[in-house]
Hints:
This is Kelch-type beta propeller. The protein contains seven helices and 24 strands.
Amino acid sequence: MSKEDESHMTFSMLPDDLVLNCLARVSKVYYPSLSFVSKKFRSLIASTELQELRSFLGCTSSGLYVCLRFRTNTDYRQICFTLRQKLSSSAKILVPISSLDSPFDYRSGVVAVGSDIYAIGGRNLNNSASSKVMVMDCRSHTWREAPSMRLARDDFPSTCVLNGKIYVIGGCKNLDSTNWIEVFDTKTQTWEFLQIPNEEVCRGFNYKIVGYKEAIHVSSLENNRATFMTYEIHKGRWREPHLSLSHGFHFSNCVIENVFYRYSYEMLQWYDSCRKIWKNLKGFVRRSIMNPRGEGVKMVNYGGNIVLLWEECVTIKKKLIWCEEVVIEKKHQGEIWGLLKWSDVVFITDEKNQLVRALAPDV
Length: 363
């Protein structure tokens, strides 16, 4: 090749394998901009080969997905959005995902495992309870069907993930201690029941399940009285949790590197499992527009940081959704600090909707 030919060589003339290797090492934040470079770039960025290469190289990162429930004339519909950076600035916004309308009902239990989002149960088109499980691959925004549950669950089942297994509780009436909990092994793709020795917890409502420190923690409310139970995975036994820990279940919460965090009463707090007490996250200052009790605030582990989302009603019709990322830093003497990375409005709407949940799968 002559020097003149070399001077006219462009990046798009390189072999696809080499371009893919370069793109895989670039943050996905820049993919929308890079898609405008050429048709070749746009095709490679949308390819499954790029997603597989990112996973192989360990170049994945957390993506933020937000579910909003919109009111229609006859019912509700749930739409998933993902956080993207604007092309013209550093600002971030929520945009609807490019897949077809979500095939799951707004009553489904939803949970993220790796790069997948599972939609569990809900109601069928004929308005009957469903045992169906749908899975969205967040790398391609395509849906597939997973094995169905043993029982149909349509009344907002609560879900959590621990060690690659999805735990599902509640979601339908007339459950007892033998079938209140179902467990899905994402590796073997099989369901099984997990028996709980406490019938009282099965009779409640507003149930929650959290995976923390090699155990699942469940709770339910009945007649303004909460019941709590903890299942130790490796020991295969149930026990009552420490009272102070159970106080975090019904607040917005998440687990990061085996530390339990919650947002309650104007503060971000973390649970000191050695001293059995809740401590304030130092450095965190609540925004005045956030609900001081934490109602409506969604909280998620976003690549080791905490992301908070909440709504602000500006007028009767206009609503804003705020998003805030807090960097977690562990200091000497066991203290944990939360430093604000960014905070901004990411969604503006005049439609009736509700912020339902936030998820952070690998992308």
